[in-house]
Design goal:
EC number: 4.1.2.25
Protein name: 7,8-dihydroneopterin aldolase
CATH topology: GTP Cyclohydrolase I, domain 2
Strand content: 25-35%
Organism: Bradyrhizobium yuanmingense
Distance between the termini: 16 Å
Number of helices: 4
CATH class: Alpha Beta
Catalytic activity: 7,8-dihydroneopterin = 6-hydroxymethyl-7,8-dihydropterin + glycolaldehyde
Order of helices and strands: EHEHHHEE
Enzyme class: lyase
């Protein structure tokens, strides 16, 4: 059985993109996370030590996303997925959605972004 911990709407200002102004000024990105794990133990024990701290997940995600400037969202999302799987052994897989609502596209649109799913190798 796989249970899910989620964080949605994490807003981070970063300098990702292929255009000069994106790396100079930066822009707001929005990240959604789905962390797949077994929550049966914390459901019984009611102990934070038996689960994954949302605050720690947000801190790890923010550091992985902001500390390096990437050209592609795919690479930025991959850095987040790698960091989560590296720092949280209880997490079996992670789904990272990165929204770039102000992407420099000559069109009217609500949102663009990517969804990346990575799992721990057995």
């Amino acid at each position: 059985m796989t249970d899910t911990i989620f964080v949605t709407g994490l807003s981070i200002h970063a300098r990702h993109g292929v255009m000069d102004h994106e790396t100079e000024v930066g822009q707001r990105f929005v990240i959604d996370l789905e962390l797949y794990t077994d929550l049966s133990e914390p459901a019984r024990s009611d102990r934070l030590a038996d689960t994954v701290s949302y605050a720690d997940v947000v801190a790890t995600t923010t550091a992985a996303f902001k500390n390096t400037n990437y050209k592609l969202l795919e690479r930025a999302a991959g850095a987040v997925a790698d960091a989560i799987l590296s720092h949280f052994p209880r997490i079996r897989a992670v789904k990272v959605t990165v929204h770039k609502p102000h992407a420099p596209i000559a069109a009217i649109f609500d949102d663009v972004g990517i969804v990346l799913t990575r799992s721990r190798h057995p």
